[in-house]
Structures are given as C-alpha cells and as structure tokens.
Model the fold of this input.
Amino acid sequence: MVGAVACLSAYTGIGVVVHGSSGCWFYPSSLLKTDLGCTDLSAEEAVMGSGERVRAVVESALARHPRVAVVNTCVPGIVGEDLAGLLDGLPVTLVDAPGFLGDASVGHTAAVAALRPVVDPDAGTVGIDGLSPLDPFFRGDLHECERLLRLAGAVPGTRYAGGPVESLGRASPVSVVANPVYAAGPGERAGDLLGLEAVRATFARLADRDPRIDPGPVEEECREADMRCRRACERYLARHDPPRAAILGDGDRVRAAARTLVRYLDADVVLLGDRAGTPGSPGERWWRAGDLGLVQEALQATSPDLVLGSSFEERLSPGAAFVPFAPPVRGRPRLASVPLAGVEGTLALVEAVLLACTGRRKA
Done:
C-alpha cells in the first residue's frame, strides 16, 4: 500500500485517497509529507460497508484535484467492497494494493499499472523508470538521469513515478532505469545506470536505437570520474587497509556498490544483503536483508568495519563506518539531492565511503 501511495503522490494532476483506517493513512503521510486523503474506515463500516464515506471523501478530494486515485488497504481488500460501483461516474483510478500483497515495490508496480500508461512509439523521448519517493536518492537520481540524457542529446520523457499524470498518455517508447527494484513502466528498457560500466552500456544501447543520441560526452564523463575515483582511493589505500564491507539494500544496487568498492578500494565484501532476496546461510555472502534477526546474525558473523545500509544496520553496527544506502535513513538531515545512479551517483558513493572510513579511523 505504501509503495502505491508513494508512486501516485509523485504525480501532479491527481489526488490520492487511502481507503482504510487512520493508521493506514498515517504511515505514508508521515513519510511523504504530502496531502493525502483518508476514508478513516471504522470497525462498523468495515463490517456494514463504507459506500457513503468513500464517495464523500473522494468528492471532497475532487474539489482540489481533477482526478483522484483511491488506494485499497487490507481490511476493505479482504471484505471485497465494490469500489468501482460505489464511485461510478467519478474521475477515479482504483488501485488494489493491500499490504499483504507484498513489499513497497509491489504496490509501486500496481499503481503504475492502474494509471494505464500508453506507449507512443513516435514520442521521441527517453523515459526514466525506477523512481519512488520512498527512496532517499529519488530526487538525486531523477536529476542525474535527466542530466545525462540531455548531455547525450536525448529528451527526457515520462517518469515512473513523477511529473504530470497526463504524460502517461504519451509514454516514452524506451526508458533508462534508476533503481531496478521500482522499474514498472511499459516499453523497452535500455538498461540501468548503476555504476560507470552500466552507464556506458546503457547509453551505447540508446545510441544504437536512436542515431540522434551521442554517447560520447557521457563516455568522457565516465572516464574522468573513473580517474577521480582511482586517485582518491589510491591516496586512501596508501595509508589504510582495504575496508571489510557489508552492503545491504535493494539487490541490484547492492551488486553495483560491491563492484564499485572492489574496483576502487579492493574491498573485502563479506556480506551482501538483499531486502527482496532469499535467505542465505551463515557460509554465504548473500542474506535476506528484510529480516532484522537475520541481518543482526549476519553482521555479527562477518564483523565488517564498513556498513552500507539503513538506520537499522547502523544501529546494529555501532563500531563500523556507516554510509546511508537504503531507507529508512533517520537522524540525518537530507537536504541535497544526492544520487546513487549515474556518474554523479558513483562519485557520491565513493566520496561517502572514503569520508566514513576516514572519520572512523580518526574517532
């Protein structure tokens, strides 16, 4: 449910109503800090029906928005209310995304599908997929993807999620992906932008598809960024041992970060944690990072001196250098739009790791 609400809230031209209790509304509202409606479902209405309440809340939202998305939560999802019938005649998009269906990416995918984007093969733009306001790097990734596309002579197009909701009526025929866990848009995917090699490969595919796109300037930026990372990391390694690293978050980002740390810092990556992956065993590097008990066990077993992850992993590894890498990130003001994708994403990651490792040694 939260993934669906986050996705929908990123678009302009559509309001969002959570069909459920006030508790179902409060969590995404506190995370997203945006205007969300709520039917505030009571116990009696859950049993007897909530038709009047739903329609009244939606009509109120339509006074402020030209269109409204109603996101179904667990209780009405189980009861099986006929929302389409209750809201007949109103400009409403229904999204069935109760929490028991899966994690935030499942809700995100359901929301994109419910908006029914239509690919226009003649749009002449390149979309940006894999964006969610739940991701602490959402805005930075968006800006970096747009920057690199313009650098190569491409026109940034449809966002999944974000921008005017009307843009989905003429969606880009091809997209680049910021964070694959949230990739949900239609059309062709040229590839992700996680790491310099991925950036090169993705823009090469875009150029093969469209001769108006020139990957040369992006390739030059990748070469320069590679040199900057090598020089900075060589200075660090001249004085310190390579870090013993644990990386926990979304699987493709984890893999990309591991490649970057091995490439530039010769890191010993002792733990890889995928929030959506299958559980590992104590003899493997891969663990399921969605279970705090397993995460704690894995961190104790591997004893990393560098941890990339969320505030949960930071709390579980008080003696390690820490780099924010996955939500939630608490107790740290986040004002700048820092990316993980693209050229600037690689530079930002290496910089953050070097600062964290150096700061730990000085402490």
Summary: The chain has three domains: 2-114, 126-220, 239-362. The radius of gyration is 22 Å. The first strand starts at residue 11 and ends at 12.
